[in-house]
Design goal:
The structure holds two protein chains of two kinds. By secondary structure, chain A is α/β, with parallel strands linked by helices. Chain A has ten helices and twelve strands. Chain A has an eight-stranded mixed beta sheet, sandwiched between helices. A four-stranded antiparallel beta sheet of chain A has the order 2-1-4-5. In chain A, helix 3 runs parallel beside helix 5. Chain B is α/β, with parallel strands linked by helices. In chain B, 35% of the residues lie in helices and 22% in strands. The chains are: A alpha/beta, B alpha/beta. Chains A and B meet through helix 6, helix 7, helix 8, helix 9 and helix 10 of A and helix 8, helix 9, helix 10 and helix 11 of B.
Amino acid sequence: MSTNNSTLLDVKHLKVYFPVTRGLFRKKVADVKAVDNVSLKVHVGETLGLVGESGCGKSTLGRGILRLLEPTAGEVYFEGQNILTIPTGKMRKLRRKMALMFQDPYSSLNPRQNAGSIVGESLLIHNMTNSKAEYHERVEQLFRRVGLNPSMIDRVPHEFSGGQRQRIGIARALACDPSLIVCDEPISALDVSIQAQVINLLKELQRGTKGLTYIFIAHDLSVVRHISDRVAVMYLGHIVEITDSDSLYENPLHPYTQALLSAIPIPDPFVEEGREMILLEGDVPSPLDPPSGCPFHPRCFMAVPDCSKTLPQLREVKNGHEVACIRV
Amino acid sequence: MAPYSEESEIQYRVKSVLGEPMEVLLQVNNLQVRFDTEAGVVKAVDGVTYRVYENEIVGIVGESGCGKSVTQLATMQLIPNPPGRIINGEVWFEGKDLLKYERNGKEMRSVRGSKVSMIFQEPMTSLNPVLTIKEQICESMQLHLGLTKADARKRAIELLGIVGIPAAKSRVDDYPHQFSGGMRQRVMIAMALSCNPKLLIADEPTTALDVTTQAVLLELMKDLVNRFNSSLVLVTHNLGVVAKYAHRIYVMYAGRIVEFGPTKEIFARPRHPYTVGLLKSVPRLDQPRDKELVPIDGLPPNLIRLPPTCAFLPRCPYRINRCEKAHWPALTEVGPHHSAACFVNLEEKALDVNEQ
């Protein structure tokens, strides 16, 4: 993993709201603030993990960054240009450099398209190859890179297993030599023994490709920590803590991060015996009607009256370790 | 919190050292389940034998399609027929073989939902959306315990309180869609406990839920089985969950049990290559990040065309000549209360799981 510090992606105050409408004239009555004022930086060649529970806005953030969802406000600088303001034609050209990998390998591949054309389609769209022969060669090369036999190019998705389909998804994402791949829960639908195959493949590809950057979105913190250099923890549309993966486990500062970590059982009964668990009360509040102040305060075991008054901002408490909590 | 009380472990040890048998609550012998499909006969469960003692939590782990859920459904005779068939086996519970009963006969129904109850994975789909929570909880109590409507309602409110639903009195008349996923699973737990079951079978009870909710619900289930003196069968693919909650573990692969034993034995000295592989392939929060994951190569076998040899053979890194020639190995004792179905003595190789 490279420690190159140049910034590939710089997200500033990104907001993605979904309007809630009512009545015949679809009058807007409220907003679901799926992503609310998120700022973060992703460096070239690193893996940034995004974790949080369902509904916290992690996938929406991933899609907002790629402009697959039109953000409500904010700026997203990709390689120095703000992609939210450039015209769609130019944007399409830029899309070559940003790819997305989906969660469900069963529904994200067209069942009537053969594997080769799924992988190679974007090569044709972006005119990446000069001849048919070159196209075929590129597709075969991509198959080999993700550990699939090129003889399977003509098969259709149902002939592949879940793990192999996810490999096709990776090959598709890699097709146009992107600099950024947003992996949205890429292993959640896979069996434990297959998950490790895909994780290792993703890591290997990053090692072998200069400057390949991942945003890795998942709810499983142990997997995210394993693959990421830095991890951002989200809760109800906000980033509550962002730090490098080691200090996240060794020194979590935000109470939500602490609860999240303690809730993950470690597959070792001897270690588990000595672990304290923080049990959270209640459910995640609705993003339609978020609590005042810190979004976590109704469930927080450290909350003080002040927590309901102001929304804490992310601030750096240690080198590279940012947290949004007034008690830290 | 310790995964289980020191005391119960000591009792377990003392009893096993003295050779005094613990009370067996459920004994399943050589269960075989087949599904007839267009492609052929699927051997979903192929000779599974396991037991559940009183007041214990048993974990059943395995990947999707290994037969762990089908085994549980079969013990309750809940396999749809066709296409499913239970072709062999015995399920001994309170001195009776449940498989001798008519599938939907009176005797089976008196066991199912009252003495043995189940919690399913999807709290969204296993509750009836057009009935109120009260109607769903009270149904089994009126049927099995003969409670009147008013008494059943009272007990339903009490149960909802026990499983931690706030304002149970007013929420008992709500419909499932008015509850969140975690709350719905609490309702399922309340329903499952309503008739004081001796055995609770939870099939991936928290897989569809968030980790913080999972932690709360598993703690709740552990406390409740303690309080009601029941036993719990916890079916899951999550090794962390069984490490924390189960007293004993059965590992399933391709419709068979490949290893079983006390939880600590299994994690400290796994003796089947599949168990070793599973342990090495999951990232652990407490280990350094750069520790390489070792995936299990290949894919799970096709259950229609199972080879006569060990089903794990094509993926096994430890295989020896004997594996290729012999019929698949039976479970043999490899330690105290610990058995594995493997020809290779894995003692040395297995140890490095923890040392690495």
